[in-house]
Amino acid sequence: MHRASTAATLFVLPACILLGSTPTSVAENPQLHVLVYNDAQVSPEILTGAEQRAAEIFSRASFDVNWANCTHLDSDREASGCNVVEGPGHLELRIISHVASSISEAAFGVAFLGPDGTGRYSDVFWNRAQELHANSNVDIAGVLGSVMAHEMGHLLLGSNAHAISGIMRAHWEAGELRRINMGTLVFLPQQGKRMRARIAPRRMLPVSSTESPGY
Fold first, then answer.
1. Alpha-helix residue ranges (DSSP H) falling in the chain
2. Cα 157 from Cα 113, distance rounded (Å)
3. Is 192 within the bounds of a domain?
4. Which pLDDT tens digit goes with each residue over 203-213?
5. Is 143 a domain residue?
6. pLDDT tens sequence across 144-157
7. pLDDT-based confidence at 199, cuts 50/70/90?
8. Beta strand pairing status for 7-12 and 107-112?
9. Is residue 38 part of a domain?
10. Which of 198, 94, 194 is CA-nearest to residue 147?
11. Does residue 52 sit within a domain?
12. What pLDDT score does 159 carry?
């Protein structure tokens, strides 16, 4: 993880390829509103599965996630939830096919961080997720959803977000891939506490046009 105003990336190590809720409890969960731009034209079935996986991961950290798919809109943007968003818990995630040559071949996504070390915007690399699926037989929706959750974690946790285990581990090895298939690669308890503590008072600032991501 780099310093504030840099981009956070997720790497997968190539050598390792191989309760019912009550209304009260739901109301107490912080809300994440995520605008998804499917530039890579991921199929609706896979994208829905990926969003469900990411939502499950955040549910384990006591968050509720609301998704707005904003790539092709047949109705008013505001009515569809794709109007400009501001404030705590509002994120934008873009799934892209083509990755800049300057980005590491092991990177699966990038999160753009602002002056306070957090951010709103993240890119996920669809072709890298496909390659991991092909080489490991890990469920593609599970891979994509886990990468989405990882990059969203960077936006909410800020600088130094990588951990030695769990969804925020920088290098995913055989154990992490197995947990993706099992649906158990999640945030650590202390990470959930950090995100919940930051989301309440947080006021998002736009990323400055003078900032350049580092990898």
1. 23-28, 44-59, 77-80, 126-136, 140-157, 174-182, 189-199
2. 10
3. yes
4. 444 433 323 33
5. yes
6. 999 999 999 999 99
7. confident
8. antiparallel
9. yes
10. 94
11. yes
12. 77
